[in-house]
Amino acid sequence: MPTPRRFMQLDVFASRLFDGNPLAVVIDADGLDTTAMQRIAQWTNLSETTFLLPPTSSAADYRVRIFTPRQELPFAGHPSVGSAWVAIEAGLVAAGKTALVQECAAGLLPVQVAGSGAQRLIRVQAPPARIDAADAALHAALARALRIGLAPGEACHVDNGPHWILGNLGEAAAVRGLQPDLAAVAALCLQQRAVGVGVFGREHAGGAAMAVRAFCPADGIPEDPVTGSANAAIMAWLGERGDRDGYGLRYRASQGREVGRDGIVEVARDLASGAITIGGACAIGVRGDLQPP
Questions:
Q1: Which position among 48, 89, 103, 223 bears the catalytic label?
Q2: Contacting residues for 35 by C-beta, under 8 A, at least 6 apart
Q3: Annotated catalytic, 48?
């Protein structure tokens, strides 16, 4: 008989179910090979599915592997936040511990825990980002795919584990009203070997400073509800631009309303080190066992 694996599904970057980004987590994943993990990720058909494993480093509290329905990722934000939440909930880390270390393909990442139970807030440090300006051809192709005018200098590449193409649309109204050509976005991402396109603009009302959307159609995800790595990539670009956009070292980003969600990402950058953290709440939806064939 196959070994049952504990399984949870939760919403990340939201304090109540149906507002965040769904994540499936296989807790007892030791013994599953890469092919089995990829098949499970295809079966759940969520933007990401993660697998919790014993760490290989003595410095880590747990290890996580992260899969989209198409590929494994070295790092992703909402899977890291949600996996840390589940690792605590499943008793894989010591009760009450507030400073954890996540091992993933991108390395060892610090995790901070505040509160407990439904009030638990998880903050994960993103890997260092590599930032490259978009050339004229990419800038023009992005504008065509987004079906919007894009001011000069307002597009770039950021790689913080996944590779993102980013566009600064200036205002939240432009972000929220966007109707991109998803086939063109997919073709652009495949050409550039990017996981997706992220766009952002300034909010002027409500509790968030920024509106964000992320499109990953080449990975079978037309629009991701709430995207930690894209939000971390945006903060890295803002810092590289010398904070000229005025968002500061800490802000809240709103993402997901266009797909019926209402996620909130807490984004922060340390001025001295440049380290970027993304964080938020989680809401559990499913607890059970998975019995793969």
A1: 48
A2: none
A3: yes
